[in-house]
Amino acid sequence: MRLLSRKAISKVALIVVVIVIIAIVAAAAFALAPAPSPTPTTPAKKFKIAVVTDIGGRGDLSFNDMACKGADEAARDFGVEVIELISKTEADYLPNLRTAAKDPDVILIVGVGFLLSDALFTVAQEFPDKNFAGIDTYTQAIAMDKLGHILPNMLDIKFEEHKGSALVGALGCLLAAYFNEKGYEFKHIGAVLGIEIPVLWKFEIGYKWGCDWALKWYEEKFGKKAPIIGEDSYYGTGPDWKDGMYCPEGKGCWYKNRVLWTYTGTFSDITKGYEAAKPMYEKGAVAVYNIAGPLGLGINQAVKEIAEEKGLEMGPPFWIGVDANQDWINPGFIIASMMKRVDKGVYYATWLVLEDKFRDVIQKYDGVLLLGIGTEVEGKLMEGISVSTLADLDEFIEMGITAEKLTGKKVLPMSPEDIKAKVKSMRESIPSWIWDAVKELEEKIRKGEVEVPLAFDKETVEYWRDLLG
């Protein structure tokens, strides 16, 4: 082995030292140098969803406001932008839908209400690359009739209104039974409906069926019939009418007068709501169910007049809200609302588009998404029907505040705190067994232990009217 001389070692050491010094200087220079600027990137694209209202427009405190609420919640959670196109007349439907579809950033167009069904059928075909959804629409039925197949880019969103209506029908008749035990004489519950169309038949028959279920539940629980509310049956030898009851030949009679009901033929004339509800209360209805959107304000006026005449601070009588939690509109006199969660329908549709599952769901469910009690879609719980609670009151008071901003008119009857306190007091004045019974019915529906009749054609409706009134 050859050894280096001392001179050679010194030379090598010098070289090493120089290399180390160079490395240190280079490292220091790198550390002190400004960080390189990031390469500019294109900002993330802002997706949009468009909501096209029906002629009820914003500020209805019901259907359209609920749809826009769902869009706003989708914007909050998913970062999308919301466009609202307000339809003043039916002539606005086509241009509004086309305006939305022409926007390259719009990924979902939602038409609110069955009246947009035909317009959606037309525009969805004109823009096959766009996604369309309709609340309560029957666009796919039109497609099957005219084309023989469903549209691949259109989702009709429907609800199991008959089940929710059964819950508030049960609530109404149990209220009548309870107050009659206390000396009142409430012989009926009532329902004010809009235009007579199949979707409203679901409400009507479900409501009547719920009352019938409740009276049977009451008899089983307390061992006696509920007082006053059309009980007795009699037998006739032929068709016969008596006190609002009909007896088909050879059959026992079911009371026609448990539920007072009328179709007003409108979803916009608030006066019609008042004119329909006032005589129902005068005949002894403990509660009247609003199945006509904005006409609930007319029902409310009838209740307010009765309250003023009798000096009442709280019902009975009551009315029952629809679609949204309307309990805040007249605290103490709206016993509950049948919540048809239109907002959830819009929210879920947006989620499906963003998850790239929208068109798969269209094919899987033949173009119809049905939201009800316990509904699951693509592994996600998508319930669309419930009875209002104190817990969800806050978000719907916000709807009233929004309506005030939109219309420039005062909507909230009192402060949010006072509203919540009065609604809470009203609910606590009702015995717990009534709320428990409604919850029991909901669970039985959820588990499939009872089946609420679905009346969606004239023959079925007439069958149940013969039985339940």
Give an account of the 3D structure.
β3, α4 and β4 form a beta-alpha-beta unit. α2 (63-78) runs parallel beside α10 (342-354) and α4 (117-126) crosses α5 (139-147). The chain is of the alpha/beta class. The longest helix is centred in the first third of the chain and has 27 residues, at 6-32. It is 47% helix and 15% strand. The strands form four sheets. It has a six-stranded parallel sheet, sandwiched between helices. A six-stranded mixed sheet has the order 9-6-10-11-12-16, with helices on both faces. The protein folds into two domains: 48-159 and 345-354, Response regulator (Rossmann fold, 3-Layer(aba) Sandwich), CATH 3.40.50.2300; 161-340 and 389-468, Rossmann fold.
List key phrases describing it.
alpha/beta; 6-stranded parallel β-sheet; 47% helix; single chain; Rossmann fold; 16 strands; 2 domains; 469 residues
List the helices and strands and how they pair.
Blueprint: H1 6-32, E1 48-52, H2 63-78, E2 81-85, H3 93-102, E3 106-112, H4 117-126, E4 132-135, H5 139-147, E5 154-159, H6 161-181, E6 188-193, H7 198-222, E7 241-242, E8 245-246, E9 259-263, H8 270-282, E10 285-291, H9 296-310, E11 318-322, E12 334-340, H10 342-354, H11 358-364, E13 368-371, E14 376-377, E15 380-381, E16 385-387, H12 393-407, H13 416-429, H14 432-447, H15 458-468
Parallel strand pairs: 1-2, 1-3, 3-4, 4-5, 5-13, 6-9, 6-10, 10-11, 11-12
Antiparallel strand pairs: 7-8, 12-16, 14-15
Helix pairs in contact: 2-10, 3-4, 4-5, 6-7, 6-14, 7-15, 8-9
